[in-house]
Amino acid sequence: xxATNSDRPRKKLVQVQHLKQYFNPGKPNEVKAxxxxxxxxxxxxxxxxxxxxxxxxxxxGRSIIRLYNPTSGKILFDGQDISRIKHRDxxxxxxxMQMIFQDPYASLNPRMKVKDIIAEGLDVHHLVKNDQxxxxxxxxxxxxxxxxxxxxxxYPHEFSGGQxxxxxxxxxxxxxxxxxxxxxxxxxxxxxxxxxVVNLLREIQQEQNLTYLxxxxxxxxxxxxxxxxxxxxxxxxxxxxxxxxxxxxxLHPYTKSLLSAxxxxxxxxxxxxxxxxxxxxxxxxxxxxxxxxxxxxxFVFAAADELADYQATAEKYLHEASxxxxxxLNA
Length: 331
Ligand SMILES: Nc1ncnc2c1ncn2[C@@H]1O[C@H](COP(=O)(O)OP(=O)(O)OP(=O)(O)O)[C@@H](O)[C@H]1O
Known about the structure:
Blueprint: E1 12-23, E2 31-42, E3 46-50, H1 57-64, E4 72-77, E5 80-81, H2 91-96, E6 97-100, H3 114-124, H4 131-144, H5 161-173, E7 179-183, H6 191-208, E8 211-216, H7 219-225, E9 228-233, E10 236-242, H8 243-248, H9 253-260, H10 267-272, E11 290-295, E12 298-302, H11 307-323
Parallel strand pairs: 3-8, 3-9, 6-7, 7-8
Antiparallel strand pairs: 1-2, 1-4, 4-5, 9-10, 10-12, 11-12
The structure holds adenosine-5'-triphosphate (ATP).
Residues 23, 31, 33, 51, 53-59, 217 line the site of adenosine-5'-triphosphate.
């Protein structure tokens, strides 16, 4: 796992503040894809964003990279407000923020050679002086993602899904970004290949001090790569905490429901595992809810009269952890 050592000063690389992203606002077909979310992503960390289909995860990633104009709220990158800047002024930020997509088949142009796909960003941002330098950089990137220089002149259809995702990663890395949004980068891959791609992303992160927003629809793999995890539902964040806390000590019923769907390699656990349903009518009971810090670093979408119960549960977890001699919180 990447850098979250508490002795390191933690710099906020991305700050999302009260972000709303409505599609077709004010019209009968209005969709509140993101409905007032706030979170920070620290430099060097992997921030996992998890939720079921339609919860607003991709829209969050696309809003941060400014593929959309936010309906309201702010997005800060390295302290600078980028939520209102014009598209042409986004060019420099676009270099610093790159995206890796879910479908490595759809996201690579089938008519382009691998070397031209990888070098696209180098060309757009004028980062190489001549063809020789361009080829050398492409070879370096192919090597970095575990492919060979022979692959440079081939086309995407000649590669497996996992290899194509490696090409997508090389393309993102070409411009030396600081922040990568990985939108379900392993969901379309065979299970046997998923771990390889996750390991590659982790290795590269450590080498290059990258910051990731890692989007996924379930908690099984995201737990291994994320430092902290936010759980999204209906365009809002239901819970946000250190990855282990979300996985082992979930507080919000929606998180518990998501987790109950995840099999674990523990026969005892599996014998008693049952899927718990989540009744989202509680979100519409007219109790104003916001993301509240229940214990340090652990936030839950809660109404004022729910706080005491959440605090009692969190404290129970803390006692259990200290009885077992574990560090209670690592957020
Ligand atoms: N361009 C758009 N125009 C209108 N509605 C949109 C648009 N993009 C997304 N939506 C809607 O916004 C909501 C959130 O979609 P989003 O793709 O962000 O969810 P998601 O959690 O990433 O789901 P998935 O994993 O299926 O992509 C959905 O109801 C979706 O239909």
